[in-house]
């Protein structure tokens, strides 16, 4: 038996994600992904380990959100 509260919460989550993300990132996360890829490339070229870690984390975050966004 399904939980009506759970189904309603899933609906709210989907709606929230769609409306907030659509307005804040009308082109999805592609521009952010491209930006952090370029930053990571520069950090790799200069062998700046701290910057590599930082930009990798940021890039992973936006790639994950882009993948989640495609589910909605």
Give the termini distance in whole angstroms. Answer: 24 Å
**Mean pLDDT over the full residue set:** 80
Helix count from the secondary structure assignment = 3
If you compute it from the alpha carbons, what radius of gyration comes out, rounded to the nearest whole angstrom?
17 Å
Helical residues, percent: over 70%
- Please tell me the total number of domains: 1
Along the chain, the helix and strand elements come as HHH
Shape: elongated
Uncertain runs with pLDDT below 50, 5 residues or more?
A: none
Which secondary-structure class do the elements indicate? mainly alpha
Largest sheet: none
Our estimate of the beta-strand percent is under 5%
The total beta strand count reads 0
Model description:
- This protein is mainly α.
- The protein has one domain.
- Helices cover 83% and strands 0% of the residues.
- The protein contains three helices and no strands.
- Helix 2 runs antiparallel to helix 3.
- It is elongated and about 55 Å long.
- The mean pLDDT is 80.
Write the layout of secondary structure elements.
Layout: H1 4-24, H2 30-45, H3 49-71
Helix pairs in contact: 2-3
Features:
single chain; 72 residues; mainly alpha; 3 helices; 83% helix; elongated
Short description:
By secondary structure, this protein is an all-alpha fold.
């Amino acid at each position: 038996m399904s939980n009506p509260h759970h189904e309603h919460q899933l609906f709210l989550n989907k709606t929230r994600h769609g409306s907030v993300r659509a307005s804040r990132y009308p082109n999805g996360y592609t521009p952010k992904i491209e930006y952090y890829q370029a930053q990571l490339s520069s950090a790799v070229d200069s062998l700046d380990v701290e910057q590599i870690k930082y930009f990798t984390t940021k890039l992973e975050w936006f790639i994950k959100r882009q993948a989640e966004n495609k589910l909605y």
